[in-house]
Amino acid sequence: MHCLPSLVMALSALLVALGVLHLWLFHHQPSCYGKHEPCQPKEGKHPAARAPRRAHLPTRCAWFLQELPAFLVPVLLLALRNPPRFAPLGCRLLGSMFCGHYFHRTFIYSFFRRGRPFPLKILFFGVLFCIYNGFLQGYYMVYCAEYPDDWCKDIRFMSGLLLFLFGMGVNIHSDFLLRQLRKPGEFTYKIPQGGLFAYVSGANFFGEILEWFGYAIATWSLPALAFAFFTLCFIGPRAYHHHRYYLKKFTGYPRSRKALIPFIF
Ligand code: NDX
After folding, report:
1. Residue 211: CB within 6 Å of ligand 1?
2. Are 156 and 242 contacting, i.e. CB atoms less than 8 angstroms apart?
3. Is residue 213 a contact partner of residue 228, using CB atoms and an 8 Å limit?
4. For the 3-oxo-5-alpha-steroid 4-dehydrogenase C-terminal domain, which residue ranges apply (predicted)?
5. How far apart are CA 1 and CA 186, in angstroms?
6. Are 76 and 126 in contact (CB under 8 A)?
7. How wide is the angle at C-alpha 196 spanned by C-alphas 194 and 198, nearest 5°?
8. Structure confidence by residue, pLDDT tens digits, 206-233
């Protein structure tokens, strides 16, 4: 396999377009899983109209299956390239940052997740998305990325890596705090407390967004920037809808808390 820059351009552009499409389609109504299920009736339908029953899978199993391709596809690409003992920097960044994130998301986060069963239909699209993105990021870093020998000393690499690690810390810690809100088998929603939840309702999402912008800066690559943009378009509105949900559900919800970005939004 060789690097096809036009393929990378086209797939990255499509990822950006999917992000914009997502903002356009879902800015007024959240993606329909977790606390936003059952879905709001579509415009023009009577509010009492019952949505058809959707098939679901236990949340742990669903998240494992959904996230696995984002780990497996780049690992397969790395294995196919069979990088030498001192692998190119692109392969090492892909292995440690991107696959590191998805190793945690697939093999650790999924098994600790507590929550409502996950809709099969969203799982199906989630799997497709993870294959697509895993391929794009993996293909670029394995076959296209080239870095100068001293890239590790470059300010872009160092600041991006720091942002990535900080975002990952915030994301993992916030997801941990959400898990602690419930006893096993419980499905009720409570007010998140502690960590960055003191400032924003979507602390886990804020962390994830920082993480992928950090990855984009550290790798200075178009596909990584496109994925960071998509993440912002998908989980940014989700944080906003979570925030509105909390304000409506809990009368004592802290008014100074923002939706996604501390002190700003
Ligand atoms: N999965 C990323 N669009 C998505 C699945 C759906 O990993 O076709 C994007 C991901 C996919 C989506 C994925 C991409 C776009 C798709 C979409 C389906 C359709 C869409 C493919 C792949 C599509 C077009 C057409 C435009 C292309 O009961 P419960 O489950 O609610 O419990 C929750 C619990 N919790 C609480 N417990 C007690 N009290 C409270 N107040 C609580 N609040 C929450 O915590 C959960 O068990 C848990 C976390 O819930 P929540 O809602 O805070 O986070 P969640 O959305 O489940 O995300 C979990 C983690 C989080 O760290 C987040 O940052 C990360 O995954 N994530 C999530 C989504 C996407 C993503 C990262 C990314 O884009 N990077």
Report:
1. no
2. no
3. yes
4. 117-265
5. 49
6. no
7. 60
8. 999 999 999 999 999 999 999 999 999 9
Please tell me if the CB atom of residue 54 comes closer than 6 angstroms to any atom of ligand 1. Answer: no
d(CA 71, CA 100) in angstroms, rounded, equals 8
In short, whether 234's Cβ falls inside 6 Å of ligand 1 is: yes
**Three-state SS at 56:** strand
The CA-atom distances, in angstroms, between 102 and each of 64, 195, 228 are 10, 23, 15
What is the Rg, in whole angstroms, of the alpha carbon atoms belonging to the chain? 19
Residue 118's beta-bridge partner residues?
Answer: 57
Ligand 1 contacts CB of residue 182 (under 6 A): yes
Which residue's CA is the closest to the ligand 1 atom numbered 46? Answer: 115
23 class by beta-carbon count within 10 Å (0-12 exposed, 13-18 middle, 19+ buried): middle
Residue 63, amino acid: W
**Count of helix runs (H) and strand runs (E) in the chain:** 9, 2
Measured from the Cα of 209, ligand 1's closest atom is 75
Give the ipTM. 0.97
Centre of ligand 1 from the C-alpha of residue 205, in Å: 9
pLDDT digits (tens, 9 = 90+) for 100-157: 999 999 999 999 999 999 999 999 999 999 999 999 999 999 999 999 999 999 999 9
Q: Which atom in ligand 1 lies closest to the alpha carbon of residue 212?
A: 75
**How far, in Å, is the centroid of ligand 1 from the Cα of 86?**
36
Query: Ligand 1 within 6 A of 189 CB?
Result: yes
- The protein residue with its alpha carbon nearest to ligand 1, atom 39, reads 189
Q: Is the pTM of this model over 0.90?
A: yes
Q: Kindly state if the Cβ of 170 falls inside 6 Å of ligand 1.
A: no
